[in-house]
Amino acid sequence: MTMSPGIRKLALTAHVSASVGWLGAVAGFLALAIGGLTSQQSQTVGSAYLAMELLIWSVIVPLSLASLVTGLVSSLSTTWGLFRHYWVLAKLLLTILATVFLALHTQPVGRVASLATERTLTSADLRQVRIQLVADAGAALLVLLVNTTLGVYKPRGMTRYGWRRQHQQKGSQP
Amino acid sequence: MADLDRYPGVPRWVKVFGIFALVLVLLFVVLHLTGRGLGDHGLSRDHAPSGGRPASPEPGHR
Prior knowledge:
Helix content of chain A: over 70%
Structural class of chain B: mainly alpha
Mean pLDDT of chain A: 90
Order of helices and strands of chain A: HHHHH
Largest sheet of chain B: none
Strand content of chain A: under 5%
Shape of chain A: elongated
Largest sheet of chain A: none
Oligomer: heterodimer
Largest interface: A-B, 38 and 31 residues
């Protein structure tokens, strides 16, 4: 896929913005999950889960999809490619994993939020799920930090496919 | 110069990264299979409302 340098920069800017925004939103989600689990104020507990549901649907899901799409566009429009370098491949797999993981967690967040709208949550209500939400948000934050690190450091290492393509291109040059 | 034409192999960081990712995925799958993870089983198990009083009333709540 060939793109003009201006469009490539735009795609990269969109990708960085979406990815960093996703990271920040997950950090906020983790803070709310911890607040919802540990707060002694029932009003805070209920509000935290309602805010988490809003955050996941209005910020986290759109940003995760935007990060995935803009990442695909950025990689395919540059010489980095999608399957040529291990760091790009690792980022792709982690992004897909985090997006799928996120999709699985919209339901439990919705259930806790729905219960919070019905009545005041006690510390025992859905405790297992609430603990799991904290653990999963922490894991998601770690995955996104790894993704950011990979994107900045771009560790060396070409895949066998990338190596072959590079040699083919060298061979075709006069 | 024949060495330059040979694929240098998978870098060490990729191997470490792969093992780490595999362990995490296996852990996730095991947690789900044992019913400790999220999903319908985990939710239905402890979804039963406690019906008790709130952990603590909000300030000013009587």
